[in-house]
Amino acid sequence: MEIRQLEYFVSVVETSSFTRAAEKQYVSQPCITHSIRKLEEDLGIDLFDRSQKKAVLTDEGKLFYTRACKLLHELQDTLAEMNDLRSLARGTIKLAIPPMIGSCLFPYLFTSFQTQYPQLTLNVYEEGSFAANRLIEQEELDLGIIILPEGNHGSLETVRLTQQEILLTVSRKHRLAKKHFVTFDDLRQEKFILLKNNFFQRHAVLKRCQEEGLEPNIVFNSGQIETVKSLVAHGVGISFLMRMALEGLTEIVGVPLNPPLHVQIGLAWKKGRQLSPSSRAFINLVSSQTENALALPLDPGQTRSAPY
């Protein structure tokens, strides 16, 4: 059975004539007649009562007409929907952003994306970079703006966007608050407040601790950036946050580490996955907005490089 056979059949029913159906479909009448005969053979039933002068449906033909109309309408809707997706008239993107990056970056990105593509939907999931990597690999999410893993990115395709420095984060009244920089030797007696395991910066900090021979006294683990900030502000302990997460704060300050600790922020998606037009549009927009700093304050002395 072919779609064209259904179209010819419906035209015959709607015009009550093989001749007028042929005119409507811009084909010859024998073509219509042959197509209907072939359709009846395929179905094993008579669709029309040929004892009548006009094209009159049999009972089976009436049922088939109802189903054929539904099939053709669904096909038209599907083709229209695919065309909308291709032309970016509609579409949904599932995007992962770690909370620390999202709170600074998302308002700018969302505004920019919605201005350019108001018909597309951006669903954002706040996940730490490790959790985001896993969800992208499992194709539960389309894209992620994450802290990029060091070295080989494995199953991910990535576009580097910017670099951020991780700073020691302390209360303004803390003994280290006015220092120009600190080493991990300065932190041996401190209480650590860290983000949970699904956050990349936790692993970066613990790796540095191991390299410096420091066994951190971790008193609290949290998945909420604001909780960490509040605990630090109240002097419960110290933490480590990106420079951009400390902009405009008065109760806590960031102190550079010596040697510095940096992370790379980038856009990631699963390697080899066929991306939707909506996702490709988002990648292009984010890459083009890199020169506008994506609302991320640059580290001192950092220069901007084009995405690869």
Explained architecture:
By secondary structure, this protein is of the alpha/beta class. It has 3 domains: 3-86, Winged helix-like DNA-binding domain superfamily/Winged helix DNA-binding domain (Arc Repressor Mutant, subunit A), CATH 1.10.10; 92-162 and 264-295, 3-Layer(aba) Sandwich (D-Maltodextrin-Binding Protein, domain 2); 164-262, D-Maltodextrin-Binding Protein, domain 2, CATH 3.40.190. Helix content is 40%, strand content 20%. The protein is built from 9 helices and 9 strands. It has helices at 3-15, 18-25, 29-43, 59-86, 99-116, 129-137, 200-211, 225-233, 277-288; strands at 92-97, 121-126, 143-147, 156-171, 191-195, 217-222, 239-242, 252-255, 261-270. The strands form 2 sheets. Strands 1, 2, 3, 4, 7, 8 and 9 form a 7-stranded mixed beta sheet that branches. Helix 5 links the parallel strand 1 (92-97) and strand 2. Helix 1 packs across helix 2 (18-25) and helix 1 (3-15) packs across helix 4 (59-86). The longest helix has 28 residues, at 59-86. The two termini are 49 Å apart. Mean pLDDT is 86; it is low at 293-308.
